[in-house]
């Protein structure tokens, strides 16, 4: 069974703090994704990675960066958290972009 | 027009009913489509892929109409456990996957 885990289920941070969200998958998938999910907007792609140290911007990369030093781990970094980054963050992995994506349980981040 | 558009609902149906959702898309070059299911406060999970010829899996049927640019999901004999949000997903090529905002379904006893 594919398992994608995320470091925290709930996180509260202050404006201006640096925030790290970690994601680990155990299925040796090449591709990993970070999304945010907001009511009425669906899931929006922030960044994806197709290999170790390789990354591509998604639709809303501003204010975020990512790191993939190992195949199984994909980190999302908020350099200076802002209140408009309050959201549900979902990590996913998959063999290919047109294949099934397996999601982690999500991290609900609140920035105050 | 949004790239993927869904009626947010909610659809409130009794157990045993048949319910159908549509999802419209704006780019005729779209390649693949999927339906994901997301339970309350849970992550999305793949329900089924949508093939050009249609796809059936038990009580669930998915269809693609390229001429009118929509896909549909039909649920027959609804169960209480079908209550969830159903996400329409379009793969457009490369690494681009677009998720709709979802349609909420409540099945009541």
Structural description of this entry:
The complex is a heterodimer of chains A (112) and B (109). With 112 residues, chain A is mainly β. Helix content of chain A is 0%, strand content 57%. Chain A has no helices and 11 strands. Chain A has strands at residues 4-6, 10-13, 19-25, 31-38, 42-51, 54-57, 64-70, 73-78, 87-94, 102-103, 107-111. In chain A, the strands form 2 sheets. In chain A, strands 2, 4, 5, 6, 9, 10 and 11 form a 7-stranded mixed beta sheet that branches. A 4-stranded antiparallel beta sheet of chain A has the order 1-3-8-7, with no helix packed on it. The radius of gyration of chain A is 13 Å and the shape is globular. Chain A starts with a strand and ends with a strand. The mean pLDDT of chain A is 94. Chain B is mostly beta strands and 109 residues long. Chain B contains no helices and 11 strands. Chain B has strands at 4-6, 11-14, 19-25, 32-38, 44-50, 55-57, 60-65, 70-75, 84-93, 96-99, 103-108. In chain B, the strands form 2 sheets. In chain B, strands 2, 4, 5, 9, 10 and 11 form a 6-stranded mixed beta sheet that branches. In chain B, strands 1-3-8-7-6 form a 5-stranded antiparallel beta sheet, with no helix packed on it. In chain B, a hairpin with a 2-residue loop joins strand 6 and strand 7. Chain B is globular. The model of chain B has no long low-confidence stretch (mean pLDDT 91). The chains are: A mainly beta (112), B mainly beta (109). At the A-B interface, strand 4 and strand 5 of A face strand 5 and strand 10 of B.
């Amino acid at each position: 069974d594919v398992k994608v885990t995320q470091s925290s289920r709930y996180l509260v941070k202050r404006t201006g703090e640096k925030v790290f969200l970690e994601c680990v998958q155990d299925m040796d998938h090449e591709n990993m994704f970070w999304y945010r999910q907001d009511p009425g907007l669906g899931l929006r792609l922030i960044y994806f990675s197709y290999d170790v140290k390789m990354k591509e911007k998604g639709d809303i990369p501003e204010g975020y960066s990512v790191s993939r030093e190992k195949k199984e781990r994909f980190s999302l970094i908020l350099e200076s958290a802002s209140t408009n980054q309050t959201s549900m963050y979902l990590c996913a992995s998959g063999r290919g972009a047109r294949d099934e994506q397996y999601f982690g349980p999500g991290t609900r981040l609140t920035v105050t | 027009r949004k790239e993927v558009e869904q009626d947010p609902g909610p659809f409130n149906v009794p157990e045993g009913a048949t319910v159908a959702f549509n999802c419209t898309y704006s780019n005729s070059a779209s390649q693949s489509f999927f339906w994901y299911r997301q339970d309350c406060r849970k992550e999305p999970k793949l329900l089924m892929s949508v093939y050009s010829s249609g796809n059936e899996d038990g009580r669930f049927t998915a269809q693609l109409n390229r001429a009118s640019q929509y896909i549909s999901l039909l649920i027959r004999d609804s169960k209480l456990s079908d209550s969830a949000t159903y996400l329409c997903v379009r793969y457009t090529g490369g690494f681009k996957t677009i998720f709709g905002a979802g349609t909420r379904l409540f099945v009541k006893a």
